[in-house]
Amino acid sequence: MRRLALPLNLLFSVVILITAARILADIASYKLGTSPAKLQTKGAQQSNLPFQQQTQLQGFALILEKALFGPATKGILTPALQPSANTPPPVSQSDLSLLGTAIGSPRTSFILVRRTSSNEERVFKLGEKVFDLGTLIAIKKETAEVRSGSQLITLRTPSAPAEPAKPAQSATAATGVTQALPGGSGIIDQRALNAALDNIGQAMTDARLLPSVKDGKVEGFKVSEVKPQGVFAAVGLKNGDVLMKINEFPIDSPEKAIQSFVTLKGQSRIKLDLIRDGAPTSLAYDIR
């Protein structure tokens, strides 16, 4: 019996060590999350993902292979690359080129877009995100509209007509002359003029008037220090002008100048006779 005691003790010790090693291995596997079952499931999911993507893209492959949008668009459609750890730079409108559009039902309408920086061509359907620029919301014959936050971006094909330029605002709008025409004519904003004349005392400080004397007589008043938003600027006067008449009424005294400006309220037309750069000049405006 004593002879068997030592081998039995050794056998029990080996069994205990093996059991302890298995327990430690199971604990380590649980903490690291590397169990064989999980690894097999994860590997199966990753292997199925490219296959699913390739299946979805096969429906659009003929578009490039048959060059439906012209010889320049012929090629092979490849799946989009999986995002890498490094975040790519944001896509700008100038980096995208609209190669063609196909208009049908909402499910069959799509566009072909090239990203210039990476020379990548992709097809997008309504409601899909065009690279990282925004969501495709409308498709027309030669344009596509993308919503990026609160901004609406229009992509155009190379053959699309250019966007019409916005009409430039008149440079004289700030002075009250809303439409200057050749020959010293134009249109004056009646509301702006009336607002300036409501306080005639203040209006007369919108420029400095000095008598212009010729042969001992006052022939008019020389205008200087014209305020851009004042009544004198509103009727087209500039520094250095010599104002002689307003609506054929001679201006040879300060009182007549004030009286002439007061009578402009309610008028539909104004005519100024003056000397500009040494030459007689007339300015005529409609008041509307």
From TrEMBL:
Transmembrane regions: none
Every Type II secretion system protein GspC N-terminal domain range: 16-156
Domain PDZ, residue spans: 200-283
UniProt xrefs under Gene3D superfamilies: 2.30.42.10
UniProt xrefs under InterPro entries: PDZ (IPR001478), PDZ_sf (IPR036034), T2SS_GspC_N (IPR024961)
Subcellular location: Cell inner membrane
GO cellular component, as recorded: plasma membrane
Gene Ontology biological process terms, A to Z: protein transport
Domain of life of the source: Bacteria
Keyword Protein transport set for record: yes
Keywords noted in UniProt: Cell inner membrane, Cell membrane, Membrane, Protein transport, Transmembrane, Transmembrane helix, Transport
Protein name: Type II secretory pathway component PulC-like protein
Native species: Trichlorobacter lovleyi (strain ATCC BAA-1151 / DSM 17278 / SZ)
